[in-house]
Amino acid sequence: MAGIQFVNVSKQYPGATAPAVDNITLEIPEGAMVVLLGPSGCGKTTLLKMVNRLHEPTSGIIFLNGVDIQSMPVNQLRRNIGYVIQQVGLFPHLTIAKNIAVVPELLRWERQRIERRIDELLDLVHLPLDFRNRYPAQLSGGQQQRVGLARALAADPQVMLMDEPFGAIDAITRESLQDQLLELQRRLKKTILFVTHDVEEALKLADEIIVLDKGRLIQKDTPCNLLANPASDFVRQLLNTDDRIRQLSLVRVETVMKSLDSAIQPDQLPQVPLGTDLKRVLSVMLSPGVDTAVVITDEGDPIGFITFEEIRKVGCLST
């Protein structure tokens, strides 16, 4: 079942000469991180905000885990969707603990359960427990964004909407937050719809990328397949598909690896962890006598494998 499904969805704002979203039909797989990518004004944020009904579609249907979202009370819908935005949106007069507890309190969780959840989430986003009693103004931008992520995860929603969440963060902190989001996603397997106009961010984070232009769906595919087989000159130029070394440094090994089979003996092959980019994988394979690497989890368990030919097949090194 798709985590999120759009069926012939359009959005026309009053007075606009063209729709912001134009008859889009697509599925967001359950447990996947899917990135909406495109230039400013292409409709990506409008599409995202229709999922939690901050904007209502002019026509079409949106399903969340198989249920038409129009059939749900809007407050109930939003309490079951995590939402992270660029401006963070923390309540400045509330402590960090109180900010994280907003949705669990609305859901009338027991106080002891809420307190445990606050501690769990601070640990999950790598913030010390003594931040509980601080206020947002006492934190850096990157720390505030971690709190925003913790708040969005507080009620353990199945679906997360992320609207350019790292856009206002400096480059070094942004890369750290991207890495942390990938780490969290490997552990939690949420259905994440992520908006960005940053191509490198999209290639690094996405299981699949949806390219939009002028409200229309242009292409939906894995990062490697988009780079290898752009559907149009617009996609080719947007992704700069001729820069192949850059491509290898941005695509994660788990997006191209194959499942283990009986012919693979993990103990006798070099290992690369989940999240490793293909440029690093290629450097491992260029060692004498090596043409295969085993992909391992954070716990060290083998989960898949990749060969040089597999990288060529998906197109990142094809001619």
Keywords:
319 residues, alpha/beta, 13 helices, 4-stranded antiparallel β-sheet
Structure write-up:
About 35% of the residues lie in helices and about 25% in strands. With about 325 residues, the protein is an alpha/beta fold. The strands form three sheets. A six-stranded mixed beta sheet has the order 6-7-8-3-9-10, sandwiched between helices. The longest helix is centred in the middle third of the chain and has 18 residues. It starts with a strand and ends in a 5-residue tail after the last helix. The mean pLDDT is about 90.
Low-confidence runs (pLDDT<50, min 5 residues)?
Answer: none
Termini separation: 36 Å
Mean pLDDT across all amino acids:
90
Radius of gyration: 21 Å
Structural class designation: alpha/beta
Largest sheet: 6 strands, mixed
Provide the succession of SSEs. Answer: EEEHEEHEHHHHEHEHEEHHHEEHEEH
**What overall geometry do the principal axes of the alpha carbons give?**
globular
In order across it, which strands form the biggest sheet?
6-7-8-3-9-10
What's the oligomerization state? single chain
Number of helices: 13
Percent in strands:
15-25%
* Helix share, percent: 25-40%
Find the count of extended strands (DSSP E, 2+ residues). 14
